[in-house]
Amino acid sequence: MMEPINVSLESLNLVTLAPMLIAIAGGLTILCIDLVAKNLHKSLYVMLAILFLFVDLGAIIGLEVNQRGFFDVMLVDGIAILSQIIMVFASMLFIPLALTSKRFHEFSMPEFFALFLFMVSGFQFMVATDNLILIFVGLETASLALYTMIAMHNREKSFEAAIKYFTMGALAAGFYAFGSLLLYALTGSVEIYKIAEVLAERGYEPIMVVLAAVAFMIAALGFKLSMVPFHTWTPDVYEGASAALAGYMSVVPKLAGFVVAIRLFEFLIHSEVMWVRDILYIGVVITMTFSNIVALVQDDVKRMLAYSSISHAGFVMAAIMIGTTQANSALFLYWVLFLFTNLGAFTMLWISRHKSQIWDKRFDHPYSKFSGLVHIMPVAATIMAMFMLSLAGVPPFSLFWGKLYIMSAAVNADYIVLAVIMAINSAISAYYYLKLIVYMFMREPVVDKETIYFKNTSLSLKTIVGFSAITTILATLAVSPLMEYITYYVKISGF
Amino acid sequence: MSHILSVLVFFPALAGMLGFIVKKDSIRTYGITVAAIEFILSLWLWLGFDSANGGMQFVEIVPLIPQFGVSYYLGVDGISLFIILLSTFITLIGLISLTITKNLKNLIISLLFLEMTMVGVFVSLDAILFYIFWELSLVPMLYIIGYWGSNLRIYASIKFFLYTFTGSLIMLIGMLFMAYLYYEATGTISFAIPDWHRLIIPFDLQLWLFLAFFIGLAIKVPMFPFHTWLPYAHGQAPTIGSVILAAVLLKMGTYGFVRLSLPIFPDAAVAAITPIAILSLIMIIYTAMVAYAQEDIKQVIAYSSISHMGVIVLGTFAMNAEGIGGSIFLMLSHGIVSGALFMLVGNIYDRRHTKLMNEFGGLASVMPAYATIFGIMLMASVGLPLTIGFVGEFLSLLGFYKISPMMTLLAGFSIVLGAVYMLTLYKRTFFGPITNDKNKTLSDLNAKELTSLIPLVLVVVWLGVYPKPVLGPIDNSVQNLLELMDKKAITKEAKEILSSNRAEVEAK
Known about the structure:
The complex is a heterodimer. Chain A has helices at 9-12, 18-36, 42-61, 78-94, 110-127, 132-151, 156-187, 192-201, 207-224, 233-240, 243-249, 252-269, 274-296, 301-322, 325-351, 373-376, 378-392, 398-412, 416-442, 459-492; strands at residues 67-69, 74-76. By secondary structure, chain A is mostly helical. Chain A has a two-stranded antiparallel sheet with strand order 1-2. In chain A, β1 (67-69) and β2 (74-76) form a beta hairpin. Chain A starts with 8 loop residues before the first helix and ends with a helix. In chain B, α3 runs antiparallel to α20 and α18 (388-401) packs parallel to α20. By secondary structure, chain B is mainly α. Chains A and B meet through α18, α19 and α20 of A and α5, α6 and α7 of B.
């Protein structure tokens, strides 16, 4: 006979769930409004989404560090709070990109905004737990919403992208499920900390099964983080998605993936199983180098940025592989700085987006489109050039500090060769970022009746570009307080 | 005057930003005025500078990222003072001589930003701050070469950027490792260069770190075999770009040797004397020979510029007061002379739109003033006594004579070779009958060109005859440097060389 289960409300600690519930409530509210009133303007939904995210952010900041809740499934440690803050903040910056002056199909539908909020809650679930099942649930919630949002862009290429992403995502989900299964079979638990304990107790025996489980996990996360060789979907999906969504995808989902990777690989890296570290090392180096080299030959700025974001992800995975507190803090610093710069760069593409492809048969943003931009729109060209310099790591623009911290972490942890590889990769990447600058500053503009430059701007887009530009320039001043904050949270979670 | 260095660094940048608002037809005057104010500020710095004191002056420290040991740390000593003066002086002269009209506003703003980064590099005492200005200087230069240059400008500008960017990233790893070493030794992290001076580093490690710094600095100098970007950059750059590049930007590399490599890694530097001397000799002789083979006047000067940079490196690695002091003086004189020569080539290019020697001949009879100034600069470049070029070259070679008379002799050939290619250039361009009809109607230098060139001539003669006001402060700071290196030396070889130098100084 089964015992009746007595659950007191306090022990559930529902407050840990509050941030996600707020986002979900926001999505439901938008759906309900749509049910009652038709043909409302998208600006309403954008503002509602921002408001709900704002409340969400407040709920996260209000959380106490290091508590568990909801049958011990939720884990609110430092990096959970930190990454949620970054993700929600990034979402608040990305959603106003829907307020374009041109009409884009997806933004006229309230479902888009509801899905957006569901997706945010999915990512929040993913980072605020160390339970493999809940990570899976969060991952799939977010991914399914994302697939749909890509397809909503309503072009043939977007459907292709969505399907491609979906099939790849399904494969990754399969890998993840199988990896979790093996870990459960080995240890009888789906909680990462228990898995770590049990494995350590048994001395990582039987090693073959552990390695198989890790291999599946690396593959699953590799897909999500677009690590080479699991990256093949990235450029196509970015190309098919709207620039705004592509920019979002290059930042937020990856951060969620990084947090899971930190939780999952941290104990393995510090164990005697050197194989894990070696395979990550190889993966990191290949991801950085290969994507950089491929980015060199791209003709389209968006595809170039897609490969560049793969390379940046590789750079940051190196921090996870190094595994010291300094490296893990550097990861978050890097990602915050990358958020602003990449947000700016993709917004610039989004601003210059046309409904018809007048520049090139295939691409929306070929390099030639930006020829001589400095003569037509000097401020826009200067800002874009600054984002490119920042991505290349030219000081004092923001990402330089990220690179500096990660390279410094590598040097301090005695990974000198890795630091040199990072430096060489930065140098290679400078070439393709410079290519855009060369087009903008050193070529003559293509003068043609049809060439209409930034037609897609609106006040909200300009505000966001201006905001990212200012943070990119003045990052130097923000690095110190930011680092203090980040290190505090990373240290408190024991990474 | 306590914040004069910050003012010096940020005044041109602020002026550059305000320059966006100035209307097109007044931007020229605006640029010249700003550069003149900046030059006067730097003169004021010299005035306030205590020449008897060889240490750092006008120091400013503000912690920037305290957890990471990065601070806003500025200061000047005798070594950097004159290079700062050179930077502001050349920028002013360059702006006066400017003849470009294409998109002038952007050019002047870029030059003002460039001036900020140049001054910034020479006053930074924090490695990260140094690195920031160092890298930032690439951006306006990239634009200047890539937009205002000639046919192959884009290729040249990208080559310039990527070469130096790659080198400096390796140097950055060296810097990070230095900070790590400092942390290991003291428990606090710091990027301040004077802090690093106190570190005593094991010899093996020094070699590696020296190499990391060397790659970054040598590409900038440019040392053989990393020099291949320079002829392209010079060949394609507009006159103003070549002037600034030769006069100031290359000095960042040699300055880096004096400021970073020597005092931080004295033992490695001593151990590297022979290989570096060999590289310098190749650089001196090989590029002098290449210069002789050039048809393009500007390329001759570009290669001669590399050749003279070789003498500077040689002097620096002599590790004694004459050598280092002489090489710093040579940096100044090379800056003035090569700047002037590039400007002169620019003048003739403006008239004829060609720089090939074959096109000219007998110019002396049509353009007497031009020929005279060219002649003076050429003599200075060759190192004729009583010109600025002589003092530095003589001292550098004298310094290295103590290390190796044989190598100094070989380096001395550079003076002969220099005379050969320079005089050939002069003969082919200025003497003989006027073979080309187009040259018969050329006008001599106009007022604007004279205003920009005469100050340079005056400096060349003044410092050639009476170098003491400049050599004095340089010498004081160099003595400090040598003392520091001597104290830190750990290998036998380094101790011998450095303490024998000091014994000599005390004997005097």
